[in-house]
Amino acid sequence: MRHVQAPEARTAQTRTRGPRAAAAALGVKPHGYLPLTLLVDLLGPGLSVALLLRLPDAPLRAWVLPALLAGLAWPAVRLCRSRYARRTLGESRGTLPVLHDWLILLGVLALVQVAAELRHPPLRMLAALVPALLATLVCQKLTYRHLMATRRAAQAVIRVLVIGEPTAADDVAGHLASRTDHPYVVVGVVAVGGSTLSSGVPIVARLGRRAPVDPAADTAAVLAAARTRDADLALVTAGAQLSGERLRRLSWGLHDAGLDLAVAPGLVEVSVKRLHTSNAGGLALLRIAPPLRHGLQPALKYALDRTLAALVVLVLMPLLVAIALAVRLTSPGPVLYRHERIGQDEVPFTMWKFRTMHVGADARKAELAGENEQDGPMFKMRSDPRVTRIGRLLRRTSLDELPQLANVLRGEMSLVGPRPPLADEVARYTPVERRRLSVRPGMTGLWQISGRSDLSWDEAVQLDLSYVDNWSFTSDIDVMARTFRAIVDGRGAY
User: Fold this and answer.
1) Residues 435-467, buried b or exposed e (16+ Cβ, 10 A)?
2) Domains, the chain, with CATH or none
3) pLDDT of residue 9
4) How far apart are alpha carbons 138 and 140 in whole angstroms?
């Protein structure tokens, strides 16, 4: 499991660094991201178009002009899409935004080609632009990895001063400290009221529970605390003591002094795609869209599941036969293991897998209960004596899961979704954990690409709940693309 530094530890580490590192710690990303990204976006399409269109007898205009247009058009499209903004560089590893930009590039260049009367075969031009897409994706992945590593070293972070009631401030500080996939580090708290904190974050100042007669008193206390802790951002937590007119006046003072202000509404694991702001008579509203359960995207998911599962079965039929023979010849017993699992809306179904354990393994589960390495209702052992030799290989490569394609074709499972639980696990679920069962279980999911059995039970549940609440068709495509790497890695598969 990944080790996460406590907020005060990450803060202390930042304070002990030299001047150059301290500057990087104030939310400033490494300066090389922008020139590197621009260079890749300029040279990627220009060079690939020039190399592919430059024929021995071709005039200069036939390949130089398209290369220049492609080399300039790609950065122009990316600039219009705000891909070079400081807040954006290094923050994403997603493929779909880059693909969207690339499709816009194709449309722009198609119009330019018609206007300039350039007569190049469309397929050749398309092939010439593919390297630009790949180069940008690789560059984006490298900067993302570097930025994440930099933030784990407590650099390129945003120093946050939390303002609010101690209970809410504790929750925010604890949540931010438990993850390292964001730039925020809590460096202090301005507590509203006289209660204490349990997170260990220092209380730098206190505000009264009631709004002061002079509104500037709140602003002065917060600004003094921000200067003391070198804060870059004031983060106000949800609470009745600091809202309405009091918060409005505080925002005036902080913004006039040049300090950014953010408000945490108390929502957890809600995708920004589901959040929509609006205004009602001057009152700012934050609308949370319900999870997608009906409409075009769920229909596309269902169609993709069936179609892709059928294609995979046809393509991998020789491999399926080979695995079946290996299972049958290396240990006595059936080739397939059938077991009842709980599906969508708690409807049981029979799930199929290639058998990876000796016959009678289920009867030995009770005697091995003391060896369980999971902290929740799931049973997992890293060196389970019931697993066969060929079974260990199948689990390591996830090939034992392939028969579940039949469950996908039958509509009982999806290609992507939460892990299908056992009935005795569901019997011990809390109401929160039962929400995992509101969608069809999947062959792969966020749990598989995030560590599988190496995750704690609480981490696995949070990933599943995040999937259930924030699902979209594009997120399924992203999970499937990242599953291949997780299978090759094999981390957490046993």
Assistant:
1) bbbebbbbbbbbbbbbbbbbbeeebbbbbbbbb
2) 33-151 (no CATH), 158-266 (3.40.50.20), 296-489 (no CATH)
3) 42
4) 5
> Can you tell me whether residue 59 is helix, strand or coil?
coil
Q: Which residues contact 128 (CB under 8 A, 6 or more apart)?
A: 45, 48, 49, 51, 52, 53, 70
* Residue 48: pLDDT over 50: yes
Answer yes or no: are the C-beta atoms of 382 and 432 closer than 8 Å: no
Written as six digits, the tokens of 119 are: 């007569």
The mean pLDDT of the chain is 82
Of the candidates 50, 125, 109, which has an alpha carbon nearest to the alpha carbon of residue 74?
109
**What are the two backbone dihedrals, phi and then psi, of residue 55, each rounded to the nearest 5 degrees?**
-100, 160
Helix (H) / strand (E) element for 36: namely: helix 33-53
pTM of this prediction exceeds 0.90: no
CB atoms under 10 Å from CB of 361, counted, come to 19
Q: What's the mean pLDDT in 27-53?
A: 85
User: What are the φ/ψ torsions at residue 189 (nearest 5 degrees)?
Assistant: -130, 135
Fill in the DSSP letter of residue 302: H
pLDDT average, residue stretch 435-457: 80
Helix (H, G, I), strand (E, B) or coil at 211: coil
What's the confidence (pLDDT) of residue 104?
A: 92
Strand residue runs (E) in 281-326: 283-288
Positive or negative torsion for Cα 356, 362, 368, 374: positive
Top-confidence residue, 29 or 290:
290
Q: pLDDT tens for residues 166-190?
A: 888 988 988 888 877 788 989 999 9
